[in-house]
Specification:
With about 260 residues, the chain is of the alpha/beta class. It starts with a strand and ends in a 6-residue tail after the last strand. The chain is built from 9 helices and 12 strands. The protein has a domain of about 170 residues: 3-Layer(aba) Sandwich (Rossmann fold). The strands form 3 sheets. Strands 6-7-8-3-9-10 form a 6-stranded mixed beta sheet, sandwiched between helices. The chain has a 4-stranded antiparallel beta sheet with strand order 2-1-4-5. It has a two-stranded antiparallel ribbon with strand order 11-12. It holds the Pfam family ABC_tran. InterPro entries: AAA+_ATPase, ABC_transporter-like_ATP-bd, ABC_transporter-like_CS, P-loop_NTPase. GO terms for molecular function: ATP binding; ATP hydrolysis activity. Keywords: ATP-binding, Nucleotide-binding, Translocase, Transport. This is ABC transporter related protein.
């Protein structure tokens, strides 16, 4: 569903090749500055690469109009402006306009918005100005807009970073369920254990290059964790739950480059 061929986004990404298919929840990981946000923006079609190509459903995503992209890709950026002058409901409704060419929302659109607000626990806030919400509540509204969009592909840039642990776990479980229904979910994560626990596949970026791609327990080797994340750590299987977890023993001191 997404094919990336020798993608360059100067000066950050270099020669990225990957393919993502429906039914996957992919964790995109890497240190700060590795290129995660740049890659998501390129896949969403909002950043034009300096080389290579990105195809979405067989079409060059950067050559298609925004309405075409919006019906296929829901993209959540890492940061939202603090002064968005809309209520929560109005903001979430924006995710439906790609389904309403004349700009008039119908019953199906209202139902999709209601469902997304309910999932994010925001029904009681729908008439509240977005600017009056906390950072975590705004983030939940942004995720609700993506859910209301009902696109087959979701590209999410650290969507749970500012959320309480309840919503972090709840949203990850819901995203995994959406992947089980046939959607493609690609989510940038800083918490590596979340990738281990919830993602089918992990793609690791380091210094603008794709350095590992596979199942989380294949990717998170002690060698990669040491070289990329600068920690002494190793995965282990929890004897009580059977889940693969990370045991981190120490940070590796930084050395001048």
């Amino acid at each position: 569903m997404i094919q990336i061929q020798h993608l360059d986004c100067h000066p950050i990404l270099r020669d990225i090749c990957a393919e993502f298919v429906p039914g996957e929840m992919v964790g995109l990981v890497g240190p700060n500055g590795a290129g995660k946000t740049t890659l998501l923006r390129a896949m969403a079609g909002v950043l034009r690469p300096t080389g290579g190509a990105v195809q979405v459903m067989g079409e060059p995503v950067h050559a298609r109009e925004p309405s075409w992209r919006a019906r296929r890709v829901a993209y959540l950026p890492q940061f939202l402006a603090d002064d968005i002058p809309f209520t929560v409901r109005e903001f979430v409704e924006m995710g439906r306009y790609s389904h309403a060419p004349r700009g008039v929302l119908g019953r199906a659109d209202a139902a999709a918005v209601d469902d997304a607000l309910a999932v994010m626990g925001l029904m009681g806030y729908q008439d509240t100005l977005l600017a009056n919400l906390s950072g975590g509540e705004r983030q939940r509204a942004a995720i609700a807009r993506c859910l209301a969009q009902e696109a087959p592909i979701l590209l999410l840039d650290e969507p749970i970073a500012s959320l309480d642990i309840h919503y972090q776990l709840d949203i990850l479980a819901r995203l995994r369920a959406l992947a089980g229904e046939g959607r493609l979910i690609i989510i940038a994560l800083h918490h590596l254990e979340f990738a281990l626990a919830h993602c089918h596949r992990t793609v690791c970026l380091h210094r603008g290059r794709l350095v590992a791609d596979g199942s989380p327990d294949e990717v998170f080797t002690p060698e990669l964790l040491r070289a990329v994340f600068r920690v002494d750590a190793r995965p282990f299987r929890d004897p009580h739950t059977g889940a693969v977890r990370l045991s981190v023993s120490a940070a590796i001191p930084s050395t001048p480059e």
